């Protein structure tokens, strides 16, 4: 494990401290109204905003790291681009298939199960990765780290209890 990036994606330690303004943004985003606002507005605008600014600006205001995931549609075979929040663990990028605590996994999760080869980009930086779902202790430890990054994941897990388990994926850099 070396360097400040993984295949062009900045390393993010979910345990590192955050300034008070970032914690305030994350607390607001973790509320039901904050989640709804992010889902309906920010998530839809992040992809074009990141493209226009070369990845320098997201509506997460730097409170959480955001990258653009490029995957192949499980049913359509078409290229799909989705903004995702991530963090790193060792030499892997970690993604949470939380879907804001909804009843179903996000579409990109099914895409990665069907076609694990994908790309992550932040502006012009990025590269190819191979996704795999985590299980057992590894999944539980990564989920706990995700809650340290963003407490909303804990609330999402409460909303999905008895409906589904939020899946966690490891993306390993590839050729």
From TrEMBL:
Molecular function as annotated in GO: coenzyme F420 binding; oxidoreductase activity
GO-annotated cellular components: plasma membrane
Domain of life of the source: Bacteria
One Pfam assignment: F420H2_quin_red
Catalysed reactions, semicolon-separated: oxidized coenzyme F420-(gamma-L-Glu)(n) + a quinol + H(+) = reduced coenzyme F420-(gamma-L-Glu)(n) + a quinone
Family affiliation: Belongs to the F420H(2)-dependent quinone reductase family.
Protein name, per record: Nitroreductase
